[in-house]
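Help needed: design a sequence for this.
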């Protein structure tokens, strides 16, 4: 995806962001291995879906969101983050992912009960005129703009590789036995690359970050309909989780919504 040059931003209004977030254990799992965190002051949303070992997934996802938030927050305080060039924000986000990766890997190697743990990660830095989206694994980011639902991330998964190679069809992928096997995760190897893309922001944009417990249980058509409902953001996240549960709730379900509007503050929906 092409980056949007800073010169294109000058004629666009500064945007504020409204956020809502929710995580739920679902209908089948005994523990919630997802974690979410939103900081409106930083314009940062982080979502992680953990995996591995007894309580390992819970620990990995909680560590990921906490460490990413802390690292990015320290950088933001020093760098006046909303004014920083996109390349500098990218470096700060990768540095945050690196910190989380190293800490989770170390914990998994030194604590027997946490061996083999790891986590997916999807995050976004919502700024006055742009959004930087990063992901590792199969947690996703979608956007609704101009009455169209777009998937902005591409899963790091074996199923996606098989789709790209033409080894399976889109229909076969829906029930593929490899659908939960990720090819990139936080805390599994010494280094991990946060795939990042920059998007221009427009008034009315609605972004959704989610774990596969949501995207696997709700079709794109259902997502588009639910995200288009004329209700507040907090009601929308509740509705999304409820429908995912009604459709089976086979996994933990997490979702973050962020909506752009013209203004001068960002806040959490109530």
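Sure. Designed sequence:
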């Amino acid at each position: 995806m092409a980056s949007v040059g800073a010169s294109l931003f000058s004629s666009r209004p500064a945007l504020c962001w409204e956020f809502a977030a929710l995580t739920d254990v679902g209908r089948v799992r005994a523990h919630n291995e997802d974690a979410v965190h939103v900081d409106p002051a930083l314009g940062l949303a982080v979502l992680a879906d953990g995996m591995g070992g007894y309580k390992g997934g819970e620990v990995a996802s909680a560590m990921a969101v906490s460490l990413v938030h802390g690292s990015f927050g320290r950088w933001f305080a020093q760098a006046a983050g909303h004014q920083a060039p996109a390349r500098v924000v990218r470096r700060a986000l990768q540095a945050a992912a690196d910190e989380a990766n190293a800490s989770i890997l170390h914990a998994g190697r030194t604590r027997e009960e946490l061996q083999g743990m790891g986590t997916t990660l999807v995050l976004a830095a919502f700024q006055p005129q742009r959004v930087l989206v990063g992901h590792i694994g199969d947690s996703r980011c979608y956007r609704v703009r101009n009455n169209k639902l777009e998937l902005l991330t591409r899963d790091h998964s074996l199923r996606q590789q098989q789709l790209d190679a033409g080894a399976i069809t889109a229909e076969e992928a829906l029930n593929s036995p490899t659908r939960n096997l990720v090819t990139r995760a936080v805390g599994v190897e010494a280094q991990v690359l946060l795939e990042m893309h920059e998007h221009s922001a427009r008034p009315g944009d609605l972004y959704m970050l989610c774990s596969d417990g949501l995207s696997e249980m709700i079709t794109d058509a259902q997502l588009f309909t639910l995200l288009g409902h004329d209700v507040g953001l907090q009601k929308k996240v509740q509705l999304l989780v409820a429908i995912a549960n009604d459709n089976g709730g086979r996994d933990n379900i997490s979702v973050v919504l962020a909506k752009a509007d013209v203004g001068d503050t960002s806040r959490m929906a109530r």
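The first strand starts at residue 15 and ends at 24.
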